[in-house]
Amino acid sequence: MSPLDISLADLITRLDEELPHADGLARISEARLRAQTLSDLGDQLIDHYVSKAKQNGASWTEIGDAIGVSKQAAQQRHAPGPFERYTNLNRHSIVLAQEAARTHKHGFIGTEHILLGLLGEPRGLAYEVLIAKTESEQRIRDAIAEAMPPAGEKALRGHIAFRPESKEAIEQARRASADLGHDWVGTEHTLLGLIHTEESPAARILRNLGFTPDELRETIKTEITKRSATRGKR
């Protein structure tokens, strides 16, 4: 086993089990998508420790040496970006949104992909809030599927850009976090960001499912308070 307690054989076995009837070419395409997801997670892992090193006073020259690149390259690749204060769960939901866009062969990451990413992270507060209201994950997935654009002809490689409304939702998530007095941006803030991007597909989906911005905000405030109280009793 590798230091991550996962091997190539594990990845092959899982893919084969999940796509038992796929032909060889379909498995190649799926393997490439999963490899990209692993690469994205790896970048986020490095970003996490770069951020900690910067907080502890490390210079970009020292960080570059640790990574094996120049100071300029380290700064360009790992300088704080729009996801700087995102929790690990929320970062993972964004990776899943990108994976959803690739799976559907879309050349963009829309708010519908971001909502799908939140559903893919059941440990997040957004997932709990969504399921508590709708009582059905499948109901939400069906609503997203109905709003999803037709699949493209070819999955893109490399970077997939966010649509303008997705960028707005990301900014709205940061604003929601600041408005609530939080120093993190969690999946719950992303959910608020989506519903506040009023003309986006995700906002329409959420409204059709019975969510409103004010009610959603109050629900999230209540749930965060409950979680804080629970941690305080441990």
From TrEMBL:
The keyword Ubl conjugation does not apply. It holds the Pfam family Clp_N. InterPro entries: Clp_N_dom_sf, Clp_R_N, CLPT1/2. Gene3D superfamilies: Clp, N-terminal domain. Signal peptide: none annotated. This is Clp R domain-containing protein. Residues 83-227 form the Clp R domain. Keywords: Repeat.
